[in-house]
Structure formats: structure tokens, C-alpha cells
Amino acid sequence: MLGTAMPKFKPHKGLRKRVRITARGKAARKMSFGSHLMSHKSGGRCRRLRRQVVLTGKISQNIKRALGEG
After folding, report:
1. Residue 7, in any domain of the structure
2. How far is CA 57 from CA 5, 8, 43, 66, in A?
3. I want to staple 12 with a disulfide (CB 3.0 to 4.6 A). Which of 24, 43, 58, 66 is the partner?
4. Do 59 and 11 meet the contact criterion of CB atoms below 8 Å apart?
5. What domain range is 48 assigned to?
6. CA distances in angstroms from 19 to 4, 42, 66, listed in the order given
7. Predicted confidence pLDDT, tens digits, the chain (70 residues)
């Protein structure tokens, strides 16, 4: 019975490097604009940009599906 098995699912490797799934199953990503040119940004803004953002709704569902989590 060759060729009858379903194709294997491949997770999106580029997305896996940018997003993580939290312990409760939510998707979290890094804030944008926080990697360089930080000298003219205020200290509070720099600290705020270090945080991660929790994604919700349909985009979170799409990310989990692309990573094979749900």
C-alpha cells in the first residue's frame, strides 16, 4: 500500500523563530521597533519595547495552526 498515507504536516520554521506559545496556549511575539536606533527613543519607551505582546483572536489561531499547535 504505497502512496496511501496522508502527507505529514510541516510547521512554519520562520514563524517558529519569531513567535512562542505560552503555557496557557496563547501566542506571544516581540515588540517591533526595538532592535536598533534606540538612542533617540525615551527610556520608558525602550523598556516598554522589551516586553512581549500576547496575540489574541483569529491571528493567534492562525499562528497556532501554522506551528502545528492547534
Report:
1. no
2. 33, 27, 31, 15
3. 66
4. no
5. 13-32+42-67
6. 34, 26, 11
7. 577 788 888 999 999 999 999 998 899 999 999 999 999 999 999 999 999 999 989 999 999 999 998 7
Q: How far apart are CA 3 and CA 60, in angstroms?
A: 34
CA distance 61 to 69: 9
Residues 6+ apart with CB under 8 A from 30: 18, 52, 53
| Three-state secondary structure readout of 22-67 | CCCCCEEEECCCCCCCCCCCCHHHHHHHCCEEEECHHHHHHHHHHH
Question: Is residue 62 one of the residues assigned to a domain?
Answer: yes
Q: What amino acid occupies position 18?
A: R
Cα separation, 57 vs 27, in Å, equals: 10
